[in-house]
Fold:
Amino acid sequence: MLSVNTNMGAMAALQSLNQTQNELTTTQSHINSGLKVATAKDNGAVYAIAQNMRGNVAGYAAVSDSLNRGVSTVDVAISAGQSISDLLNELKGKALAAADSSLDTASRSALNADFTALRDQITTIVQNASFNGTNLVDGTTANFQALASADGTKKITAAGQTLKLSGTIVTMKSTSTISTQSKASTMVSTVNASIQNVNAALAKLASGSKKFSIQATFVSKLVDTLNAGIGNLVDADMAVESAKLQSLQVKQQLGIQALSIANSAPSITLSLFR
Structure:
């Protein structure tokens, strides 16, 4: 039926063109943003899942920072422990030399001066072995805890080791000397015990550092996996979108031509009256 009031062909062509235009707009948006799900309106369920995963990624970024601080804090403590161990070895040598009964007074005094200088250096090292305000070798921090999970409920702990003088690890006192042959002889065994204790403490610190490092590596890999998962959910396949864009552009041109033809149909009515 020919009608000048209602053009069903034009309306159908217009609806088809509008649908094509909407699809074209969506495809162009995917190409511009690189995302097939950029907002909740694109796909509410997928967007919610992706946002939850992004929250986990943000949480693990804080976990990674905490673990890295833990590694640095323990590594500073280990460096201090190694220096103290080296100093104790030197102190042992001084004590052994001073324990020689044939040593003259001047030599013993010189050895004692060196001994006390090295002894005091242990205190200096302990006092300065801090990272970000935390000192694991001066007895002020029993344990250092780092985050291990994105929700903050799980933590990893490294135990502090008190390496200051007159402690249970370094048993040599802050007033110890080797000014006499007798004191020097006694000091040899004291220093020997301290060396063994410090080395055991270093092993414990190293174990704590390793725990932090292993967890930090795991978190890094986990974040990469989560980011890949988010990408699988929301990233647009650019090859597919490119092909779809070309297809829709052709479809758009055809739709425009179809609408033009449909709009010209009523003019056929005029020929009936000629």
